[in-house]
Amino acid sequence: MFRLLAVFFLFGVFAASAELQREYILVSGGPSLQEWEKFKAEPHDRWWGNFIRAARVRIQEIQTKAGPSANITWLVHKPSYARRAARQDQQDLLANILSVRDKYGVNLVWFTEGDEVIDYLNSGQPRDRIKIADFEYYGHSNRACWMFDYSNEIDSGSKSWIHENDLGRVRRDIFTRDVFIKSWSCHTAESMSKKWKKATGKRMIGAVGKTDYSNGHLRNWTPGLSAGSRWGG
User: Fold this and answer.
1) How far apart are CA 107 and CA 199, in angstroms?
2) Residue 73 belongs to a domain with what CATH number?
């Protein structure tokens, strides 16, 4: 009887440990181009690395808290950085991003379309064993849509996105109970956060109003809020 109980106990411990595997997922959208932005009253993305440096700092924070071997996946919108490199900055931005991957040992996943982000959330890892403990987005958005290439290929528009009406495709069983979800982008909590909660059952913190990536060095590169804005969701 003792041996039987011991077997059940060890099986339970193994099952519990399998369920506790956690993945941290960060998404970096792409920067705009100054050829579209330079005539605006408030041009976006004078610096190419707004959404990269913020994610890099968050990677460091996660590794400090969860350990250097934390399972971190970083999704980056590749076409935007390739286009920005060729048409504006004249430097190998993709190599710069790869250097962050190599320095911190994270899993870098390039993507082009928003569908690829949803697909990774749902099945990028065996979700019966590896649950998402953290999901954060750095990039452009409006109240109903993450725009991964805003003002990068076309002026003030996007060809790569996730709309709030797409969120019903995100599986509800892929997250840990204590998952932390935050959109570090403009206006998310005005509509998209509500649709996210309805679709997934999980809260997503977002901005009511605009986020601010300017003068990031004064905030350890963590995005702030524009005047009159607040976090909600």
Assistant:
1) 27
2) 3.40.50
What secondary structure letter does DSSP report for 202?
S
Which of 109, 181, 184 has its CA nearest to residue 140? Answer: 184
What pTM was computed for the model?
A: 0.92
For residues 187 and 211, what is the distance between their CA atoms, to the nearest angstrom? 8
List Cα–Cα distances, 33 to 89, 112, 141, 153, 223, in angstroms: 10, 17, 16, 8, 20
Q: Is residue 228 part of a domain?
A: no
Residue 19: the pLDDT is: 56
Is 133 within the bounds of a domain?
Answer: yes
What tokens were used for 215?
Answer: 């003068």
Mean pLDDT of the residues in the chain: 93
Specify the residue for token string 């607040």. 230
| Res 150 pLDDT > 80 | yes
Confirm whether 1 is domain-assigned: no
Interatomic CA distance for residues 128 and 144, integer angstroms: 30
CB 158 within 8 A of CB 37: no
Residue 164 has pLDDT above 60, yes or no: yes
**Total domains, the chain:** 1
Residue with tokens 């060729």: 86
Q: What is the pLDDT of residues 169-193, one digit of tens each?
A: 999 999 999 999 999 999 999 999 9
The residue segments making up the domain with residue 170 are 21-184
Contact assessment for residue 147 and residue 128, using Cβ atoms and an 8 Å cutoff:
no
Q: Is 96 left (phi over 0), alpha (psi -120 to 50) or beta?
A: alpha
The verdict on residue 9 lying in a domain is: no
Distances (CA, A) of 229 to 112, 186, 210: 30, 9, 6
The pair of structure tokens assigned to 107 is: 């899993």
